[in-house]
Specification:
The protein has 192 residues and is mainly alpha-helical. The chain has helices at 2-9, 19-30, 34-48, 53-60, 64-76, 83-87, 93-96, 98-111, 129-138, 149-158, 183-189; strands spanning 112-114, 123-125, 161-163.
Length: 192
Amino acid sequence: MKSLSLSYATAPILAPLSASQIEDLKLASSKMTGAERRSFQAAMALKYCGGSARQTERVFGWNRDTVELGLNERRTGVICLGAQSAYCGSWTWEEKHPDVAEALWALADSHGQQDPTFRTALSYTRLTAAAALEQLRAQGFPEERLPSLSTMAAVLNRNGYRLRKVVKAKPQKNSQKPTLSSPTLRTRTGSR
Protein backbone atom coordinates (compact mmCIF):
# COMPACT_ATOMS: atom_id res chain seq x y z
CA MET A 1 0.00 0.00 0.00
CA LYS A 2 2.76 2.39 0.91
CA SER A 3 4.73 1.61 -2.23
CA LEU A 4 1.62 2.19 -4.31
CA SER A 5 1.14 5.72 -2.99
CA LEU A 6 4.87 6.46 -3.40
CA SER A 7 4.88 5.30 -7.00
CA TYR A 8 1.75 7.36 -7.64
CA ALA A 9 3.30 10.51 -6.15
CA THR A 10 6.46 10.10 -8.18
CA ALA A 11 4.73 9.14 -11.41
CA PRO A 12 6.38 10.96 -14.29
CA ILE A 13 4.64 13.69 -16.23
CA LEU A 14 3.17 12.34 -19.46
CA ALA A 15 4.75 15.06 -21.57
CA PRO A 16 8.02 16.40 -20.13
CA LEU A 17 8.04 20.14 -19.47
CA SER A 18 10.94 22.47 -18.81
CA ALA A 19 10.89 24.87 -15.88
CA SER A 20 10.26 27.83 -18.19
CA GLN A 21 7.30 26.06 -19.79
CA ILE A 22 5.81 25.36 -16.37
CA GLU A 23 6.25 29.03 -15.42
CA ASP A 24 4.58 30.09 -18.69
CA LEU A 25 1.59 27.83 -17.98
CA LYS A 26 1.35 29.18 -14.42
CA LEU A 27 1.42 32.74 -15.76
CA ALA A 28 -1.25 31.97 -18.36
CA SER A 29 -3.45 30.45 -15.66
CA SER A 30 -2.98 33.45 -13.37
CA LYS A 31 -4.31 35.78 -16.09
CA MET A 32 -7.62 33.89 -16.25
CA THR A 33 -10.48 33.79 -13.76
CA GLY A 34 -13.41 31.56 -12.87
CA ALA A 35 -14.60 28.87 -15.25
CA GLU A 36 -12.04 29.86 -17.88
CA ARG A 37 -9.17 29.23 -15.43
CA ARG A 38 -10.64 25.92 -14.26
CA SER A 39 -11.08 24.78 -17.85
CA PHE A 40 -7.48 25.68 -18.67
CA GLN A 41 -6.15 23.93 -15.58
CA ALA A 42 -8.23 20.83 -16.35
CA ALA A 43 -6.91 20.76 -19.93
CA MET A 44 -3.31 21.00 -18.65
CA ALA A 45 -4.02 18.28 -16.08
CA LEU A 46 -5.29 15.97 -18.82
CA LYS A 47 -2.46 16.81 -21.19
CA TYR A 48 0.54 16.76 -18.85
CA CYS A 49 -0.56 14.90 -15.70
CA GLY A 50 -2.86 12.16 -16.93
CA GLY A 51 -5.93 13.84 -15.43
CA SER A 52 -4.58 13.62 -11.86
CA ALA A 53 -5.46 16.68 -9.78
CA ARG A 54 -2.83 15.74 -7.15
CA GLN A 55 -0.04 15.49 -9.69
CA THR A 56 -1.18 18.75 -11.25
CA GLU A 57 -0.95 20.37 -7.82
CA ARG A 58 2.56 19.01 -7.36
CA VAL A 59 3.80 20.05 -10.81
CA PHE A 60 2.06 23.41 -11.31
CA GLY A 61 1.22 24.42 -7.74
CA TRP A 62 -2.48 24.86 -8.52
CA ASN A 63 -5.14 24.01 -5.94
CA ARG A 64 -6.18 20.42 -6.56
CA ASP A 65 -9.79 21.13 -5.56
CA THR A 66 -9.97 23.75 -8.31
CA VAL A 67 -8.43 21.32 -10.80
CA GLU A 68 -10.89 18.59 -9.75
CA LEU A 69 -13.78 20.99 -10.21
CA GLY A 70 -12.46 21.90 -13.66
CA LEU A 71 -12.11 18.22 -14.58
CA ASN A 72 -15.70 17.57 -13.42
CA GLU A 73 -16.98 20.59 -15.37
CA ARG A 74 -15.18 19.29 -18.43
CA ARG A 75 -16.55 15.77 -17.95
CA THR A 76 -20.19 16.80 -17.37
CA GLY A 77 -20.36 19.97 -19.44
CA VAL A 78 -21.98 21.83 -16.52
CA ILE A 79 -20.25 25.07 -15.51
CA CYS A 80 -20.42 25.89 -11.78
CA LEU A 81 -21.19 29.48 -10.88
CA GLY A 82 -20.47 30.84 -7.44
CA ALA A 83 -23.10 32.63 -5.40
CA GLN A 84 -20.92 35.74 -5.38
CA SER A 85 -21.12 36.25 -9.14
CA ALA A 86 -24.83 35.47 -9.16
CA TYR A 87 -25.98 37.66 -6.28
CA CYS A 88 -23.34 40.31 -5.60
CA GLY A 89 -22.61 43.64 -7.15
CA SER A 90 -24.82 46.63 -7.62
CA TRP A 91 -26.91 47.25 -10.68
CA THR A 92 -26.19 50.18 -12.92
CA TRP A 93 -28.64 53.06 -13.00
CA GLU A 94 -29.84 51.95 -16.45
CA GLU A 95 -30.69 48.48 -15.08
CA LYS A 96 -32.55 49.92 -12.09
CA HIS A 97 -34.61 52.40 -14.12
CA PRO A 98 -34.97 51.11 -17.71
CA ASP A 99 -37.94 53.37 -18.59
CA VAL A 100 -36.08 56.53 -17.56
CA ALA A 101 -32.99 55.26 -19.38
CA GLU A 102 -35.03 54.82 -22.59
CA ALA A 103 -36.23 58.41 -22.31
CA LEU A 104 -32.62 59.52 -21.76
CA TRP A 105 -31.41 57.63 -24.88
CA ALA A 106 -34.15 59.22 -26.98
CA LEU A 107 -33.17 62.62 -25.61
CA ALA A 108 -29.45 62.07 -26.19
CA ASP A 109 -30.07 60.75 -29.71
CA SER A 110 -32.01 63.89 -30.59
CA HIS A 111 -29.06 66.02 -29.44
CA GLY A 112 -26.35 63.71 -30.78
CA GLN A 113 -24.21 64.06 -33.85
CA GLN A 114 -21.82 61.70 -35.61
CA ASP A 115 -18.10 62.43 -35.52
CA PRO A 116 -17.57 64.90 -38.40
CA THR A 117 -14.58 62.91 -39.71
CA PHE A 118 -16.57 59.62 -39.70
CA ARG A 119 -13.43 57.88 -38.45
CA THR A 120 -15.05 56.63 -35.24
CA ALA A 121 -18.45 55.37 -34.24
CA LEU A 122 -18.58 57.80 -31.32
CA SER A 123 -21.58 60.06 -30.94
CA TYR A 124 -20.82 63.55 -29.81
CA THR A 125 -23.52 65.49 -28.05
CA ARG A 126 -24.14 69.06 -27.04
CA LEU A 127 -26.34 67.76 -24.24
CA THR A 128 -24.74 68.19 -20.83
CA ALA A 129 -25.58 66.07 -17.82
CA ALA A 130 -27.32 69.01 -16.13
CA ALA A 131 -29.43 69.71 -19.22
CA ALA A 132 -30.35 66.04 -19.49
CA LEU A 133 -31.51 66.00 -15.86
CA GLU A 134 -33.59 69.14 -16.38
CA GLN A 135 -35.26 67.73 -19.48
CA LEU A 136 -36.01 64.42 -17.73
CA ARG A 137 -37.58 66.38 -14.84
CA ALA A 138 -39.64 68.31 -17.39
CA GLN A 139 -40.89 65.01 -18.81
CA GLY A 140 -42.33 64.22 -15.36
CA PHE A 141 -39.90 61.69 -13.94
CA PRO A 142 -39.72 61.85 -10.12
CA GLU A 143 -36.52 63.12 -8.50
CA GLU A 144 -35.83 59.84 -6.64
CA ARG A 145 -35.57 57.96 -9.95
CA LEU A 146 -33.07 60.42 -11.46
CA PRO A 147 -29.35 60.06 -10.80
CA SER A 148 -27.02 62.70 -9.42
CA LEU A 149 -25.19 65.03 -11.79
CA SER A 150 -21.93 63.05 -11.71
CA THR A 151 -23.76 59.74 -12.20
CA MET A 152 -25.65 61.19 -15.17
CA ALA A 153 -22.35 62.21 -16.75
CA ALA A 154 -20.97 58.69 -16.17
CA VAL A 155 -24.14 57.08 -17.62
CA LEU A 156 -23.96 59.16 -20.79
CA ASN A 157 -20.23 58.54 -21.16
CA ARG A 158 -20.56 54.79 -20.48
CA ASN A 159 -23.17 54.46 -23.23
CA GLY A 160 -21.16 56.16 -25.94
CA TYR A 161 -22.35 59.77 -25.67
CA ARG A 162 -19.28 61.92 -25.21
CA LEU A 163 -20.05 65.09 -23.31
CA ARG A 164 -18.34 67.71 -25.44
CA LYS A 165 -19.43 70.32 -27.85
CA VAL A 166 -19.61 69.34 -31.47
CA VAL A 167 -17.17 71.26 -33.63
CA LYS A 168 -18.95 72.58 -36.67
CA ALA A 169 -17.32 71.98 -39.99
CA LYS A 170 -15.32 75.03 -40.99
CA PRO A 171 -15.19 75.85 -44.71
CA GLN A 172 -11.74 75.95 -46.20
CA LYS A 173 -10.49 79.29 -47.39
CA ASN A 174 -10.12 79.63 -51.11
CA SER A 175 -7.48 82.34 -50.92
CA GLN A 176 -3.87 81.48 -51.52
CA LYS A 177 -1.24 81.82 -48.86
CA PRO A 178 0.61 85.13 -49.18
CA THR A 179 4.08 84.91 -50.65
CA LEU A 180 6.91 87.39 -50.53
CA SER A 181 6.13 88.62 -54.04
CA SER A 182 2.42 88.97 -53.36
CA PRO A 183 1.04 92.55 -53.64
CA THR A 184 -1.16 91.98 -50.58
CA LEU A 185 1.90 91.20 -48.47
CA ARG A 186 3.54 94.49 -49.43
CA THR A 187 0.49 96.53 -48.49
CA ARG A 188 0.24 94.87 -45.09
CA THR A 189 3.86 95.44 -44.23
CA GLY A 190 3.86 98.97 -45.54
CA SER A 191 6.67 98.43 -48.08
CA ARG A 192 6.27 99.01 -51.81
